[in-house]
Fold this sequence. Notes:
Layout: E1 5-7, E2 12-14, E3 19-24, E4 27-32, H1 33-38, H2 43-68
Antiparallel strand pairs: 1-2, 3-4
Amino acid sequence: MTNKVYCYHCMTYHHPETMRKMMTRSGVRWRCIRSIEATRGSLKERDAFGEQQSELNRAQARAYQESVMPGRRLATLSC
């Protein structure tokens, strides 16, 4: 993963050719073109993209936790 760049927006690594530098309050950061394009859509499209990205992030975090603690099952909310 040495030839990939971290996207601060979607919190994943991408190839450098799919990234652009963006000026933020914290300074210059890398952001993927996919997330930049998603912000140009309507409010409904942006919300759908955000929900999709949140679900990907949750799945990634869940997979990481299960790999770190294989014998332990994550607690889930049940009604």
